[in-house]
DNA sequence: AATTCGTGGAC
DNA sequence: TGTCCAAGAAT
């Protein structure tokens, strides 16, 4: 691992921020100002999610709920509807809870330190540092995937970035490098660098504004960084999805448990099966509806049924208007599309 | 510490 | 089609 002296650190800050001021992504909507609410919303949305995907969601969210008071007073259904399709829905519920803490518990007084921000729901080490540095000018490194990638190459840090304890190694190495005068810009400059010249695949390190500080590039081993162990591939699970309309043409839905995958969302009733042989009812499609989550791959077979037992407390018939008004997970949208196509074919 | 939590894009 | 990934947090 490289160890920079004070002069190198100061030169690095200067070169990095000069580039950021010229070529940074100043146009990103959440960089319009440093209102902590805007920063928090953007950071929660950006967790494990691409910038291009977030932009539309962010603008729509801020138009609907422009202040932390608006969010704190909003019904959860509205928050989830605004989040629909973005995934990792606990982020939306945590953001909602965080807004309630700020508005109702803290009377609108934002926590400004890293440690205090860390206590908000949905705010972990990265997000706390991002908000503290961007909105409150605290000099802490916001260690995300970009940060790991950029500094693993610059400093030749060999620790596996998939391991939790590696965060401390990077923190210790880079905390002295963060610019105390412009910590928020420093962190955001690292992100911009990590998605441009120092991106994951096919980087253009030679033309990077900080190429002369890049030890891995200097030694011709850039492709070895960052060190990252691989994750396991999704496990296949099969289900049959019960399709039942009532006399009004409303469709039977079932609410999922309040914890686990797609917690609390409404979908067609899903029943696990071992194989297609186990389908009970009229098979509606030749091909299954498949959906891949981060750790599960679902194969879902829609099956028309004549009735169900007496409706359980978590089952309801929903009209098209009701379905449209509520937040539905991507899987359910795929199932609806599939049903519509079957209907159109049979006509 | 290792798993669990969505989705869409790139290759 | 499969694989990996992209501004992580909670458990």
TrEMBL record:
Keywords, in A-Z order: 4Fe-4S, DNA damage, DNA repair, Glycosidase, Hydrolase, Iron, Iron-sulfur, Metal-binding
EC number per UniProt: 3.2.2.31
Entry-linked CDD domains: ENDO3c, NUDIX_DNA_Glycosylase_C-MutY
Known cofactor(s): [4Fe-4S] cluster
Swiss-Prot/TrEMBL catalytic activity: Hydrolyzes free adenine bases from 7,8-dihydro-8-oxoguanine:adenine mismatched double-stranded DNA, leaving an apurinic site
Enzyme class: hydrolase
Entry's family note: Belongs to the Nth/MutY family.
Function: Adenine glycosylase active on G-A mispairs.
Designated name of the protein: Adenine DNA glycosylase
């Amino acid at each position: 691992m490289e160890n920079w002296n004070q002069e190198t650190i100061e030169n690095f800050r200067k070169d990095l921020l000069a580039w950021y001021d010229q070529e940074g992504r100043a146009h990103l909507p959440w960089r319009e100002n440093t209102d902590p609410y805007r920063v928090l919303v953007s950071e929660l949305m950006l967790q494990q999610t691409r910038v291009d995907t977030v932009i539309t969601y962010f603008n729509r969210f801020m138009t609907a709920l422009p202040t932390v008071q608006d969010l704190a007073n909003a019904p959860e259904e509205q928050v989830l509807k605004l989040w629909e399709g973005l995934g990792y829905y606990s982020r939306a519920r945590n953001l909602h809870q965080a807004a309630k803490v700020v508005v109702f518990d803290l009377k609108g007084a934002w926590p400004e330190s890293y440690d205090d921000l860390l206590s908000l729901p949905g705010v972990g080490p990265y997000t706390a540092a991002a908000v503290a540095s961007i909105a409150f000018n605290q000099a802490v490194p916001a260690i995300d995937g970009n940060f790991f990638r950029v500094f693993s190459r610059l400093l030749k840090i060999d620790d596996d970035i998939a391991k939790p304890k590696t965060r401390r190694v990077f923190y210790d190495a880079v905390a002295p490098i963060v610019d105390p005068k412009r910590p928020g810009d420093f962190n955001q400059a690292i992100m911009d660098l990590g998605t441009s010249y120092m991106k994951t695949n096919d980087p253009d390190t030679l033309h990077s504004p900080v190429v002369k500080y890049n030890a891995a590039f200097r030694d011709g081993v850039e492709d070895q960084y960052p060190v990252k162990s691989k994750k396991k591939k999704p496990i296949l699970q099969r289900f049959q999805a019960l399709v039942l309309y009532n006399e009004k043409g409303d469709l039977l839905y079932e609410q999922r448990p309040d914890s686990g995958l797609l917690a609390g969302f409404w979908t067609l009733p899903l029943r696990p099966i071992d194989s297609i042989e186990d389908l009970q009812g009229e098979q509606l499609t030749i091909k299954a509806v498949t959906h891949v989550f981060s750790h599960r791959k679902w194969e879902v077979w829609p099956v028309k049924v004549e009735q169900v037992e007496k409706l359980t407390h978590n089952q309801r018939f929903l009209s098209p208007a009701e379905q449209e008004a509520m937040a539905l997970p991507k899987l359910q949208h795929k199932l609806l599309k599939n049903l519509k196509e079957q209907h159109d074919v049979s006509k």
